[in-house]
Write a sequence for this structure.
């Protein structure tokens, strides 16, 4: 694993929702890859809601929006990480996996610290896409992987 990105969302009592993406490359912080997204001004949530009203404390919806924006890249240029860490539980992890899938990114097998594996996709499918469109996905909550 050469590059790792972590995603977290924050809000103030359901308003002023923002997401941060931090990047590490070759084991060192990579500030040029850090991103901050103001999610109160997004066009739509995956459930059709949203707009200028924001997410009203909807962390999974905000994670979906942040990961979708990250996959869209800046001016169409996308350099996805090898591993994407999500700060959240099962719902946030599922939202991130859905955003990756909707963006055409395959979630590949990831390994937990205990050696457990995620079987969300086959390695054959991921290898056919090449490294630019595949990402390992894990949650910071209790070592959960995207398939749990």
């Amino acid at each position: 694993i050469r590059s790792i990105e972590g995603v977290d969302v924050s809000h103030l009592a359901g308003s002023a929702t923002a997401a941060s993406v931090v990047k590490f490359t070759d084991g060192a912080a990579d500030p040029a890859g850090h991103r901050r997204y103001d999610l109160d001004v997004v066009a739509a949530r995956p459930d059709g809601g949203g707009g200028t009203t924001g997410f009203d404390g909807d962390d999974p919806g905000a994670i979906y929006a942040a990961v979708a924006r990250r996959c869209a890249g800046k001016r169409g240029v996308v350099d996805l990480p090898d591993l994407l860490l999500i700060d959240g539980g099962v719902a946030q992890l599922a939202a991130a996996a859905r955003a990756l899938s909707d963006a055409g990114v395959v979630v590949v097998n990831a390994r937990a610290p205990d050696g457990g594996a995620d079987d969300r996709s086959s390695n054959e499918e991921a290898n056919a896409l090449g490294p630019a469109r595949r990402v390992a996905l894990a949650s910071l909550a209790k070592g959960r992987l995207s398939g749990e």
In short: Confidence is low (pLDDT under 50) at residues 111-123, 125-131. The first helix runs from residue 59 to 72. DSSP finds three helices and seven strands in the chain. The beta strands are 3-12, 15-25, 28-29, 35-38, 83-86, 106-108, 134-139.
